[in-house]
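In response to reviewer comment 3 from the previous cycle, which asked for concrete evidence that the modeling workflow produces usable outputs, we include below a single protein chain processed end to end. The sequence was submitted unchanged, and the resulting structure tokens are shown without manual editing.
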Amino acid sequence: SIEFSPRSEINPVIGRLINALLLGYGYDKDIKGKTELLCSANECLLAIVMKLSENQLRPLYARLREWRGDIDESGMENTSYSRRYAFWSLSAALSKELRSIFLPCLSTVIGDAVTELDFAVNRLCDSSHLSKTSGGKKRRRLDHSGKNDAGLSDLDELSPLQPLLLSLELALKADAHEGGGWVRSDDGQRYNAILNPLGKLLEANIPPNFPVDSSSGENKSSEISPFQQLVSGVGTTEHGNVIACLTALAAAAGNEQLWKPLNHAILQACGNDSRSEVRKAGASALLTIIQTLGEEYMVLLPECLPILSELLEDSDEEIASIAKECIRQGEELLGESLDDSLI
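The workflow returned the following structure tokens.
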């Protein structure tokens, strides 16, 4: 009914409509019921937003942010993960529908997004990547059983990560379409703030019981690891994953200077000696970016060739095949053979 109502009828009751939506967004009893309710709430929110002007959108989004609560990594446990999940989910829905129009709203929460990413890195990545809080103590890190060092499950606290990745991916795609000015603002500070934790997540240790939204059937999903889903993007194209977000970031960046640290993060994953899934994710990320950016990215191909040469000899045939395809596409884009450049 909102969709077919004139603005003159919607504006007087927006406050009550949003209050009702917040009750739905705050529901956290039944997981299946929550997912369905969240989808319906997002549809209703979009219907309301389409009746608003840009000037009305910003205070509405600010109210939703206030409802979610402050995000502070040192006290993340005190912020409702259910509200954080709902907030990034609705942000993704708005970003998908409004595209570049939504970027000014997302600018107001980019610090929160980076905090969420840092929180995930500190919980999911190896100790060499751990940062310290202001209190001097390292954050608890999850192991492969889904438990942290204190023996308590932290998986719920990390559930907002996937909708956040989707929200950023959609925003960055919209920004790339407009020339990338949004992510390159402040002399690239926004870009680097996102890239730093996002690149580290290529090497995340994802517990086997990590909650991941996927388009794969239930039986199929059980055969695919959470790492493949959350990092590599298997079955999660519509739900958010690391490689898709990283590719969108590269597309929005649009220049060699910004691509260099991104390429370094990918090559670091490609060179992970202990985990083949990470090497495969790194190679897949490189291939996806080459396919997305094409000839423009070839300026960085020379520094990729040594690691690609190593991956051609990888014991995992899938990794070797991906590396071979990276080289083949590079040769096609450059119009010359790379045999003499391979070690």
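Confidence is low (pLDDT under 50) at residues 128-140, 144-152. We consider this sufficient to address the reviewer's concern, and the full set will be provided in the supplementary archive.
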